[in-house]
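Consider the following assembly input.
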Amino acid sequence: MASRARRVAPLADHDDHPDVVEADTATWSPARVAELYDIGNTWLHRTHPLTKLSAVLPLTVAGFVGDGAGVPVILLAVAIVTLVVSRLGIIALKSLRLMAPMTLALVIIHGVVRPYDSEPLAAWGPISVNAEGLALAGTTAARLAVFVIAVTAAMATVHPKIFATALIQRGVSHKLAYAYLAGAELIPEMRLRATQILEAQQSRGFDTKGSLPRRLRTLFALLKPLLVSSLIGVEMRTLALESRGFSLPGRRTAAVAVRERGRLLQRSLLLASIPLLVLAIIW
Amino acid sequence: MSAIKDGLRFKTAFTTTAWVLIPVAIGINLIGRFFTQTLNLPLFLDTIGTTMAAFLAGPWVAAVAGVLTNLVIGLTLEATSIPFGIVNAAIGIVAGVMAAHGFLRSTGKIILTMLCLTAITIITATPIVVLVFEGVSGSGVDAVTGFFVASGQGMVESVIGQQLVTSPLDKVLTVLFAFALIKGVPQRYRPPFGREVIPF
């Protein structure tokens, strides 16, 4: 576990906090964030988290330039090739898997189900395939895929803790960063607890496949222990945070410092969204 | 009544308990979604945590919990859920304001809260689904949208129709679950705002 955690270290500032980084990462419980974060040491992992996030906006806006699917498809192809060449093909795969049900729904609703005045490409009884609808579905899917792949590539290559630290270093409230980080770390934990409760209730004979009212009753029985225990835990966590000076005013020092770099690039990326937005509106 | 006033004011709403409640609300939102998928229920139930935060700490805390839920899920699991943060925040604000004004004190008022949450969901979600996603969401409810589209309705009408079919039950259950679960927690464990809006 410690060796996996140590591989996160290149993003942090070795020059200023060499020991602290190593000591802290060993307690980061990579298993808890394993499904949220792909551990590695590629150029994308080493890029400042906010630079990656800043790139999402111009990339997404660029996907809306032009009438058809041309621009978003080119962007998507470049993104996939870049990720595969960088040995991050898994991120491209993850993004495309996320887009699959939405693409299918777009194709069915716009390409098959939606009635058009134009001549269909093919027709079988009441079902017809329309070129206009397929083009709209393709363009929308490609635009959304550009956004999804940009976000996934940016966030799957940064540990949530480093992301939260980078936000605090740029002046975001440490309380907001805490809420984000605690929420992100809770995802795998809550899933695990939910699965355990589901299995425990099933072993007591709870029906998870019956009629709708029965499944709703099961749902309440599943939710109650988890939610009540979570709420009761709030008081304890509040006391723990208060004893650590959570609500005291002033700037916080971080156990992990993210090297401060790429400010100009981040601003340039955000500013690049403006001409792209104008282009997307007029073209 | 001062706890209610504090909960309604942005400056005083964010106590340490409120900040602790936010990640819990995020987790509960996610769990609702996980269980509905596991039990194959035609529902979302992904705002139970936001609604609970609204009933326990007020509208602003719930709005932050709502936005953060979609940001956390969007940035770590499903990027497509980011735009729906607006819907989640709107639900939190409406639920919190209604709770503060005594809409959890009688059955009739609770039903009105459910109706208002359904309305705000339709008002805020429809433009996002139509403008950003061209009418689809990638979930089972797309079949309902498809039905309306096939019957010759426009995309906006189809999405509103789909929302009218799926949202009411979802929001009724969300409010019921949130209310019943808060009632299951002893008074002393509830934040002051929650103690005053649900005083039993």
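Strands of chain A lie at 122-124, 127-129. Ask yourself how this observation constrains the way the partners meet.
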